[in-house]
Structures are given as structure tokens and as C-alpha cells.
Amino acid sequence: MSAQSRPAAPGIRESATVTSLRHQNRAAALRFVLQQRETTRAELARRCGFSSASAANITAELIEDGLIAEVGSVASRGGRPISLLAPRADGAYAIGVDVGERGVAVELFDLSLTMVDREFRGGRREESPDDIHRDLSEAIAELRERNRERWPRVLGIGLGLPGVVETEADGTQVLYAQSLSWAPRPIPLDLDPDLPVYAENGAKTQARAELWYGAARGIDHAVVALLGRGVGLGVITDGELAHGAHSSAGEWGHTKIRYGGALCRCGQLGCVEAYLGADAILEAWRARGGSFDGSGWQALGALLAAAASSDPDATAVLDDTIDALGAALGSVVNLTNPQRVVIGGWVGMRLMEQHADQIAAAVRRNCLDRLGAQFELVPATFGGDTVALGSALMPITALIDTPRAELFAS
Ligand SMILES: [Zn+2]
Description:
Helices cover 41% and strands 21% of the residues. The protein contains 13 helices and 15 strands. Helix 2 packs across helix 4.
């Protein structure tokens, strides 16, 4: 680069500029290889805007650091083989956690984002924040015990949480889970003696997983809906996840779908979650005489099976649910003009299995015609583990942004 050959002007820290540029290029290259999962030096150069020489240098450095590897080759048009580059699976690890209302799923991923180990804790009907804190510490200690050789290369712990997660000016993070009636609570940093902890709203971590690897990959403008016990949304604008002033953007579950409507868990009336949360859907069926076990996957499956066999009450509940989803997402389409609407979460995935066309039609009935013609509606790529996968991307993003000199420094 010309900055390297130009003599430093007095008072300008040229070396810092060069270092920063090298660091930015390295970060862009590492992110690209991690997201592509398999690529070539030529593709890296083209997509990141590097010269071939720069791409070769950066690649050599990342290989030397054990973060990427050559994993084979393909023949080029001239017959010369071209090396394929991929993340080096054992180059680093990250823990992703889905903190749900009924338990915590703690998953260890390698650098190719393959899950290599997992612990689940919980299963109580109501989890208190203290239960969750203890479950998390125990599960992580268990993983540490089983993965002693990997642990020095574990980057950190990412938590996907059910509520608003704010980052204060001093870097501390606080969870506001109004729907669960929890008092504001600092994110615990003592989950492991060595590992840093990162936290974000679970719907946002899901959206990040879909943006990196799934249904929103390569899409600059998308919305990713999470339909489960709670209802959330990640909004992707210009290829980035929107956070708002205090990282709380996208609280779609508590936007109003009916003025003065049903009481929501957050204490307000008429929220989307009060109609589209799993409990609300199943409660509507129970009110019509439906009977089912539990309140999870199987209960929802029973509702969908009854509707499929033309049970009139189940059909009415399903139609209402799809109408409500159409109205709620139609507003989102009008507000954000997405190219793609992605529906995930365990409730969303089940609804999409058989009713994707009906849902898309309901959304189009509830937004302006022009905007309705500009999006496609698809299911999320990942099923139940998406929040944990997306959460693991937080420590991995920190790795990407870490200067080479500080890599795995202890
Ligand atoms: Zn609400």
C-alpha cells in the first residue's frame, strides 16, 4: 500500500496507521474465510478488495497463527491446482449458550462452527435467575472438565438471553427481562475463571447465525423472526444487525397488534407476544376445548395435527395465529422494506413446515402491495440450536477484532 512507502509526516503516527490498516485487512480476511467456510486466495482477494500479494501475505499469516488451513485443491482452467482455504477447526473454540426460560443449552463449537460438545441444565417449570446462574456455571465446569486439551484455545462464552441486553459505557452488560418479571440484572462474568463473557438478546443472536451461515446470508436487508415461548426479531439493515441507541432495537414481540388487547407477560396490553407466543397459541386452543400434554413442541404438534385432520377448533386457532402473524409481520415489512423475511424459533419452524404459503399470503395482505412484492418469506436454516450458534459468534467476532499480537495471550 502507498501508506507504507510514504515518509511519515511530522506529528502523524504512520506506523499506527499501517498497523491499523494491516489489522483491518486481516480482520476482513479472517471474517471472510470463517463465513465462507471454503474459499480460495483469488476469491478472498476479489471479495475483500486485496491485491493478490496482500491476499497471499494475510493468508500466510492466518495459516501460521493456526486459524485457517489449506484443505485441498481444485483444478483451475489452466490445469494448475488452486488451494482451498477453510477455517482450521481446532484453531479456536467458542461457547454459545441459549438461555431459555426452561433451561440453558451450553454448546462448545470449533472454529468451523461445528458443535463438538454440549450440556443442558434445567427443565424446571420456572427458572429463577439464580437457578440459571448456577446451571450455567455447572454446565461450563462440566464442559471444561471434558475438554481440558481444547480449553486454552476457547475464546469465551456468548450468552443469548431472553430480554433486552444493554451495554453500559464502562462495558458492563445488564439484562432487562421485563417479560419474566426479573429485576435488572448484571450479566455474570464469573462463569469460568479464564473466559470472557459476552451477552446479547437471543433473537439477535439467532439473526446473526442466519446472517453468517443461514437464510439471511448475503442479504443486505432482512428480518429474522424468532417465534418460541417468547417472540423476538433481528433486523438486518445494510448487511448489519440493527441495535438502536442502547442495543434494544427489534423488540417486535412487544409492539402492539391490538389496541387494548390481551394482557402480555410484560404487563402491557395487545402485544404481538400475547397472540403469537407458544403459551398464547396453546391457551387459545385450550379455551376452545383442545386437550394436549405439556406446553412445548409436542403440544404444538398436536394442534397442527388436529388442524391437518380438519378439526374445526384447531383449524380456527391455526387460522387466527396465521392472521395475527401476517398482521404483525406486515407492519415489520412496511417499516423495514426487507428483501427476505426469515421465520425461525421452534414455533416458527413448525408453522412453516406446512403453512409457509399461507403465512406469506397473510403478510402480503397486511403490508402495502408494492412492499409485499419485494420480499420472499423463508424458514430459518437452523432449528432449535440457532441461539447457541449465534451466541458463539460473539467470542468469534472478538477473535476477528483481536490484534495479532494479543492472540491467545494469557
Ligand atoms: Zn408485551
